[in-house]
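Severity: low
Component: inverse-folding endpoint
Summary: output formatting inconsistent between runs
Steps to reproduce: submit the following structure tokens with default settings.
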């Protein structure tokens, strides 16, 4: 299934202390009903400074839109690096 993403799309990223990296964020609400931003990985609070990134910047930081990228082997034929995950 193809995913339609506008060339003008942007995605909110902020620094997550728990994950120790820049992460995608989502909006939630605290106990008082105030809007807060949380990390999509650990649900912890994301930093106050948002960076709105493009699809290309998002994918360069390790996320992807649609199907995962095809992993390629080094070409040696040994098979040890063909589908290695970090």
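Observed output (run 2 of 3):
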């Amino acid at each position: 299934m193809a995913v339609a993403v506008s060339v003008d799309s942007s995605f909110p990223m902020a620094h997550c202390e728990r994950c120790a990296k820049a992460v995608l964020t989502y909006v939630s609400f605290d106990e008082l009903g105030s809007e807060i931003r949380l990390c999509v990985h650990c649900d912890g609070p994301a930093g106050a400074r948002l960076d709105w990134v493009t699809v290309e910047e998002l994918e360069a930081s390790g996320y992807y839109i649609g199907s995962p990228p095809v992993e390629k082997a080094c070409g040696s034929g040994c098979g040890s690096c063909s589908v290695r995950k970090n």
